[in-house]
Specification:
The protein is built from 16 helices and two strands. It is mainly alpha-helical. It has a two-stranded antiparallel sheet. The N and C termini lie far apart (about 45 Å).
Length: about 350
């Protein structure tokens, strides 16, 4: 039996064993509590079903549907959302902490194995294409490119280092630190920094405009860039790790590197800094407006379109109370980005490893 078949068999056993705990003894549930429990059990059953079906298709090497990860993603959102509604109705159902660092009110630690299977399937569906051009130093590349760009934008060494650390956080936020991946939920956004074709071209043009400054500041990095440019020529630049990171940073983030001195004063926590720059990926226009406002944390957004984009990226996405929000301040948005915390903690650990003497 192959390793995938063994994994599928193990998952089937786990999926059978994972069940929702019964109500605590001593009192019948209210109608609202019964409804919340039934909704959670339906969502959990659907999540197991979608996981099993996608796993079976992959194991059998069957053609997958377009955007094969979308149904998995929506089923996972429904599980977390319905569990939050359940714990709102029955606070006694809030359980123990979980290894994913999701607030226990949103997640039952008993279903951790299902999320492990979810991640395994996405790893398979988003595997890089055969011609992807990997780097032997993917994390260091991100840090070096970001720091060089920041210096070209006029930052001193300390704030250029902050740009490198923040950008490493973006790499983990976008792909969990995996290079050249595809996207199970999009046919547009690909590569280490998950850019679309137009974003990659725009970033490339911006890089060419500052390449002379980069060459003067860091000839060694410029020589590496020449090598990677030649290697990627004639291919999709998003599947060369170096060129995709470079162009992704130039497209969305490089101009905002100038704001880092003020950002680190307002947000001294490095993880909050990473969250802010991730918001440049998700809702760029209001984030730039918030930075210009002079009162970043209290700047409020109320556009339905902006709130939709936040929810589509796991911010205010789970449970009726969160989804009912019609506005939020940036202080509230940053606090609601708890699903990114674990990724950014990994980025911080990797950054410390890169900078270790």
């Amino acid at each position: 039996m192959g390793s995938r078949r063994l994994a599928a068999a193990a998952f089937a056993t786990v999926a059978f064993l994972v069940t929702t705990p019964a109500f605590a003894q001593g009192g019948a549930p209210t109608p609202k509590q019964s409804e919340a429990l039934a909704a959670y059990e339906r969502a959990l059953g659907e999540f197991k079903s979608v996981l099993a079906e996608r796993g079976r298709q992959i194991e059998a090497k069957e053609p997958l549907p377009n955007l094969p990860g979308q149904a998995l993603y929506l089923a996972r959102v429904a599980v977390i959302s319905s569990y939050k509604d359940l714990t709102d109705a029955m606070p006694s159902r809030i359980g123990k902490p979980n290894k994913f660092e999701i607030p226990p009110a949103y997640f039952d630690a008993a279903i951790e194995p299902l999320i492990d299977e979810y991640a395994r399937l996405f790893d398979i569906m988003e595997a890089p294409p055969a011609g992807a051009q990997n780097s032997p130093t993917p994390f260091k590349d991100v840090v070096d490119l970001a720091a060089a760009i920041a210096r070209a934008k006029g930052l001193g060494p300390q704030h250029a280092e902050a740009a490198g650390r923040i950008s490493l956080g973006l790499f983990f936020a976008e792909t969990n630190g995996k290079q050249n991946v595809r996207n199970g939920r999009s046919n547009t956004y690909m590569g280490s920094f998950q850019t679309g074709p137009s974003e990659d071209r725009n970033g490339h043009r911006k890089w060419e405009a500052i390449k002379g400054e980069i060459a003067a500041l860091d000839p060694q990095l410029n020589a590496r860039d020449d090598k990677e440019e030649a290697r990627a020529r004639g291919t999709d630049y998003r599947f060369n790790h170096w060129t995709n990171v470079r162009d992704g940073l130039m497209n969305a983030h490089a101009d905002l590197f100038r704001e880092i001195p003020g950002i680190v004063k307002t947000l001294p926590d490095p993880i909050d800094q990473m969250k802010l720059f991730e918001l440049i990926q998700i809702v760029p226009t209001p984030t730039r407006s918030a930075l210009k406002s002079g009162d970043l944390l209290n700047y409020r957004v109320s556009s339905p379109t902006v709130m939709k984009h936040l929810r589509n990226n796991s911010i205010f996405a789970f449970g009726q109370a969160d989804r009912a929000r019609t506005s939020a301040s940036f202080r509230e948005i940053l606090a609601a980005m708890w699903l990114f915390n674990r990724k950014f903690e990994k980025a911080m650990a990797k950054y410390a490893e890169i900078k270790a003497p």
